[in-house]
Specification:
This protein is of the alpha+beta class. The chain has helices spanning 27-32, 36-50, 110-131, and strands spanning 2-4, 7-10, 21-23, 58-60, 68-75, 78-85, 92-100.
């Protein structure tokens, strides 16, 4: 059983089933700079990913195929995004966390997509090296 904030969120959970979280690049430090409310929401989404559950606000990041998700959080008229990978069987990889500053629509800026692409390659290599799997 797992309880979060005084509420039971998973009844049938055995210890040891939680996937580890791996942080790529500056993603952990970047996330630490987000407002508390955004960090809590993102942290809960990552926790659910570790349990094999998709957070209700998690959505696939277009152009990356399955297993690459993002959480979009809004706070004080700002938008924050955290991109993570659940495509690896043994771990959840946090690839990028950033504040979207563009005023041109909701699309993820090209430079942020480039960061995700590079970090995904790093995550794939890390997973092969650490977990010995593809």
């Amino acid at each position: 059983m797992i309880i979060y904030g005084g509420t039971t969120i998973i009844d049938d959970f055995e210890q040891g089933e939680l996937k580890p979280t791996e942080w790529i690049g500056s993603s952990k430090e970047d996330l630490k700079g987000f407002p508390d409310e955004v960090r809590y929401q993102t942290g809960f989404a990552l926790f659910q990913a570790q349990c094999g559950i998709r957070h209700r606000y998690a959505k696939p990041l277009k152009g990356f195929g399955s297993g690459i998700l993002e959480i979009v959080s809004r706070h004080d008229r700002n938008t924050y995004r955290t991109v993570y990978a659940v495509r690896f069987q043994g771990a959840v990889y946090v690839l990028h966390a950033f504040q979207k500053k563009s005023t041109k629509g909701v699309a993820t800026p090209r430079r942020e997509i480039n960061v995700v692409q590079g970090r995904l390659k790093s995550a794939e290599q890390h997973y092969r090296d650490k977990y010995g799997q593809e």
